[in-house]
Amino acid sequence: MGSEEVLAVRAHQLAKRYRRRWALRGCSLSLPQNRVVALVGHNGAGKSTLMGLIAGLLKPTEGEIEVFGRRPSGTGAPVEVAYVAQQKPLYPGLTVAESLRFAARMNTRWDQDYAERLIRAAEVPLDGKVGKLSGGQRTRVALVLALGKRPGLLMLDEPLAELDPLAREATMRTLQEESRQHGIGVLLSSHVLEELGTVCDHLVLLGNGRVRLDGSVADLVAGHRVLRGDGQPPVAPGEIIDSSRSGHEQVLLTKRSGPVAAPGWREHTPRLNDIALAYMRNNDDDNAEVAA
């Protein structure tokens, strides 16, 4: 990461313990502002805990965290941060219009015209009761309530879980457009890796409460390769992140170093999904790659 890039979040040796269990340990990362960041990892990797610490809803056990240059209080979200938890807390008895008016009373930075425009674009009825909406429509309402605050950083925990494929595509497109047009940083925690790879430009991957990957998508893709072939692998064992078989071939995800000249082996550019899955399968801290 370039030294001139403005950071939304900086964490150093961040740790959170629940009784005897460490949810995060030694977590250091830098999240750039005005980017769409994918936060991925297996269940229990520490994703929700990290988001709670960034949102100021949890206090760290150890280490430091800064959000827009200030330390979160641990008792509430900074005004620049909007957080949509996985449960999407909404009032089912209110209409969508009433939900927007309630949000206007609770948030000093609220933009009513902007929120109504987003609701209309999502084709959610303003007079519809929240409790009667579909899961996908409730997700869109929760997203609008967060964006209407005009945050500097929008955090979404599993926002795609209740959406059908078309709604997922529309939601991701909305997030990408709002980030680009209004300079909003977006942090997305999700298991839907394929969709994340189409819109995210930065990846943070957690494993066992630690940061395994932290860097721009472009740098991570440039720093890895897929090798397909058979026989003795043409790279050193320490460069191999993951190994599998497809038919009669070995498929390796490796760190990129020099050219591969071994006969019978072909080199391909990996997808973000390939890289993330390889590190999730091979949960070894020695292979961690954290951006400077």
Envelope shape: globular
Q: What CATH architecture of the largest domain would you give?
A: 3-Layer(aba) Sandwich
The level of helicity is 25-40%
Strand order of the largest sheet: 5-6-7-3-8-9-14
Structural description of this entry:
This protein has three domains: 7-88 and 139-216, Rossmann fold, CATH 3.40.50; 89-138, no CATH class; 219-290, no CATH class. A hairpin with a 2-residue loop joins β8 and β9. The radius of gyration is 21 Å and the shape is globular. Strands 5-6-7-3-8-9-14 form a seven-stranded mixed beta sheet, sandwiched between helices. A four-stranded antiparallel beta sheet has the order 11-12-10-13. Strands 2-1-4 form a three-stranded antiparallel beta sheet, with helices on one face. By secondary structure, it is an alpha/beta fold. α3 packs antiparallel against α4 (135-147). It contains eight helices and 14 strands.
Write the layout of secondary structure elements.
Blueprint lengths: L6 E12 L2 E12 L3 E5 L6 H8 L7 E6 L13 E4 L11 H11 L5 H10 L13 H13 L5 E5 L7 H18 L2 E5 L3 H7 L2 E6 L2 E7 H6 L1 E6 L10 E7 L2 E7 L10 E3 L3 H10 L7 E2 L2
Parallel strand pairs: 3-7, 3-8, 5-6, 6-7, 9-14
Antiparallel strand pairs: 1-2, 1-4, 8-9, 10-12, 10-13, 11-12
Helix pairs in contact: 3-4
Looking at this protein, list some descriptive labels.
292 residues; alpha/beta; Rossmann fold; 3 domains; seven-stranded mixed β-sheet; globular
Write a brief caption for the model:
The protein is of the alpha/beta class and 292 residues long. It has helices at residues 47-54, 96-106, 112-121, 135-147, 165-182, 193-199, 217-222, 272-281, and strands at 7-18, 21-32, 36-40, 62-67, 81-84, 153-157, 185-189, 202-207, 210-216, 224-229, 240-246, 249-255, 266-268, 289-290.
